[in-house]
């Protein structure tokens, strides 16, 4: 049986008095945590949440967020973690599309309540996560812990555990349906590949709405380790927490590692307990790697590759290969070998496997692969076939099974670890008066890996400027999706015979001198 709550019960059984969570001075044991989880679950049931219902969470990292991630499956409900960087219209869409019956929100996200007022038709309860006094009439999270504990309903296996929204190729984000099996198998892959154990202390510094962090959430719990939380990534607070909480494991994108190792106060902190950093979402720049190895020689660095649809781990690069010298050098640009519970292959346009060393589309199969996209059967059918998920990532595999990503077949940009689908940005820009045509592409960026770049053809007689476009975009989409650079042209965008914009042609000038079309 694969059940998310089994990992929590195991931790409480094997380490009842062992530390479970620490946040803002609050420290709890595993026995205290499981007691709180069962009571929160009891409160949710009393509020009318039933098995199969969806409950949204819009908040920064904290221990209560963690408790919700177990209280919801405890009563058979599904979590809907919402990206805290989204704009109000995007949040409104997710709440509507998921049919969430309740919303948990904190102070940092409370500014969304006014624009969302009367636009959350299915939401029956809004619960305030913070200790501060929230808006009048809202339930407070701690009040939920006073309810009688609920009995675990036994949600497991193919039952829906969560909807995790990812960008959409058509401009609308898709709810990835992940089951208990998906998330538990992924957690097992993490325990085996990353090495979580009962002595692990993991810092949640990446956002908890991201599965990159969620993968470790369930794995560390399963192993009986300990969770330390910071609200959001901030280099000094992260370094301080590593020092005071004796953190052993962390997950950062390369941009975060760069900010840490080059911070002027880095040397002030004792981070000798930090033994392992998992990084991903973009390749590690050689300069950042050299600095990290210089100032953190005791830390193992592991590159991971994955996606929401795979819950998310697909490949892991053994830390031995995160090196520039010696017998293991040469595979630093690889994203590693397949995780224990997965199977991968590289296929051609007919989805036939190609020889090693030949580029094609990466396909993944395993118990970690999603059930499908919520209420989107056509999109699901387009990527799932005979148990295989077709990723849309161009890759090749060498004769030892090391995977190298070389291109993105789907129109997606990865900037600072965040996925940005071009169609979402194009849809937003197209709503601006005066825009005749628009194409959004990813171009190389030294700091962010790639940046969102817009190419706009104004309507005849209309003059547009970058500031107007940016201001318009910020009202429509999350800040990280907004273009960081814009070109205007007075000639039509190049089109294929089928009438599609030739984005490869638009990208070509920006990627000259690069050996692959992604960064």
From TrEMBL:
Pfam families the UniProt entry points to: AMP-binding (PF00501), AMP-binding_C (PF13193)
Record-linked InterPro entries: AMP-bd_C, AMP-bd_C_sf, AMP-binding_CS, AMP-dep_synth/lig_dom, ANL_N_sf, ATP-dep_AMP-bd_enzyme
Organism domain of life: Bacteria
Keywords (A to Z) from UniProt: Ligase
Catalytic activity: 3-(methylsulfanyl)propanoate + ATP + CoA = 3-(methylsulfanyl)propanoyl-CoA + AMP + diphosphate
UniProt domain AMP-binding enzyme C-terminal: residue ranges: 424-500
Family under the similarity heading: Belongs to the ATP-dependent AMP-binding enzyme family.
Protein name (Swiss-Prot/TrEMBL): 3-methylmercaptopropionyl-CoA ligase
Provenance organism: Reyranella soli
Taxonomic lineage of the native organism: Bacteria, Pseudomonadati, Pseudomonadota, Alphaproteobacteria, Hyphomicrobiales
């Amino acid at each position: 049986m694969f059940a998310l709550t089994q990992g929590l019960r195991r931790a409480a059984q094997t380490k009842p008095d062992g530390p479970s969570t620490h946040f803002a001075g609050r420290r709890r044991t595993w026995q205290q945590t499981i007691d709180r989880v069962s009571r929160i679950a009891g409160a949710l049931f009393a509020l009318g949440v039933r098995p199969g219902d969806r409950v949204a969470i819009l908040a920064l990292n904290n221990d209560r967020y963690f408790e919700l991630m177990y209280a919801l499956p405890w009563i058979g409900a599904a979590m809907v973690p919402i990206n805290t960087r989204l704009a109000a219209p995007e949040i409104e869409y997710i709440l509507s599309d998921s049919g969430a019956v309740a919303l948990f929100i904190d102070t940092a996200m409370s500014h969304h309540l006014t624009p969302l007022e009367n636009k959350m038709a299915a939401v029956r309860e809004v619960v305030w996560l913070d200790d501060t006094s929230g808006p009048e009439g809202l339930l407070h999270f701690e009040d939920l812990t006073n309810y009688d504990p609920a009995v675990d309903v036994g949600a497991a296996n193919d039952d829906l555990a969560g909807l995790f929204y990812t960008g959409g190729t058509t401009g609308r984000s898709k709810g990835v349906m992940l089951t208990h099996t998906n998330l538990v198998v992924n957690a097992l892959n993490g325990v085996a590949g990353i090495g979580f154990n009962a002595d692990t202390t993991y810092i949640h510094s990446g956002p908890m709405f991201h599965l990159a962090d969620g993968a470790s959430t369930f794995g560390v719990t399963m192993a009986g380790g300990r969770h330390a939380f910071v609200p959001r990534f901030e280099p000094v607070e992260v370094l301080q927490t590593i020092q005071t909480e004796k953190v052993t494991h962390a997950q950062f994108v390369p941009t975060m590692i760069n900010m840490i190792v080059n911070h002027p106060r880095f040397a002030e902190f004792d981070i000798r307990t930090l033994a392992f950093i998992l990084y991903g979402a973009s390749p590690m720049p050689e300069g950042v790697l050299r600095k990290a190895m210089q100032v953190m020689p005791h830390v193992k660095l592991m590159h991971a590759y994955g996606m929401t649809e795979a819950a998310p781990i697909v490949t892991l690069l053994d830390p031995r290969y995160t090196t520039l010298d010696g017998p293991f050098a040469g595979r630093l640009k690889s994203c590693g070998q397949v995780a224990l519970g997965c199977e991968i292959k590289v296929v051609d346009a007919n989805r036939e496997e190609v020889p090693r060393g030949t580029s094609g589309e990466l396909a993944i199969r395993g118990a970690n692969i999603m059930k499908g996209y919520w209420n989107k059967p056509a999109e699901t059918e387009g990527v799932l076939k005979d148990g295989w998920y077709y990723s849309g990532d161009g890759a090749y595999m060498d004769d030892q099974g090391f995977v190298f990503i070389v291109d993105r077949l789907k129109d997606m940009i990865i900037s600072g670890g965040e996925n940005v689908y071009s169609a979402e940005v194009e849809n937003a820009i197209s709503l601006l008066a005066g825009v005749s045509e628009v194409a959004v592409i990813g171009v190389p960026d030294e700091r962010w890996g790639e940046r969102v770049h817009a190419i706009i053809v104004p309507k005849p007689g209309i003059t547009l400027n970058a500031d107007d476009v940016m201001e318009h975009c910020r009202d429509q989409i999350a800040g990280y999706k907004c273009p960081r650079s814009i070109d205007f042209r007075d000639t039509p965008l190049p089109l294929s015979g089928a009438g599609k914009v030739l984005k490869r042609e638009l990208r070509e000038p920006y990627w000259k001198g690069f050996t692959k079309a992604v960064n």
